[in-house]
Amino acid sequence: MEREREIRAFVPEKFWRILGLFETQKEALEKHYKVKVEDSDELIEKIGRKKGILKKGDEVNVDQTSREILRAWQKAEIKF
Question: What's the rounded mean pLDDT across residues 65-80?
C-alpha cells in the first residue's frame, strides 16, 4: 500500500526528461549544439558551459540548462 502511494506521488524531474530525449535523439542534440558527448551528464555540462548557464563557483546550473534544452526541443529549434 505504501509503495502505491509513493508511485502516485512521483513527479519526474526535468533532468530525467533530458535523459529520455538524449537516449532517442543524441545525434540531433549533438548536431544542434555542436558538441560530441558520451552521456546526458556530459551533454548538460557542455551546453551549460557553452551558453554560460553557471552558478557561483563556475558550476553548471543543471536545472536551468535542462530547461533550455527542453525549451529548444519544444519550440522545434532542434531538428531531427
Answer: 91
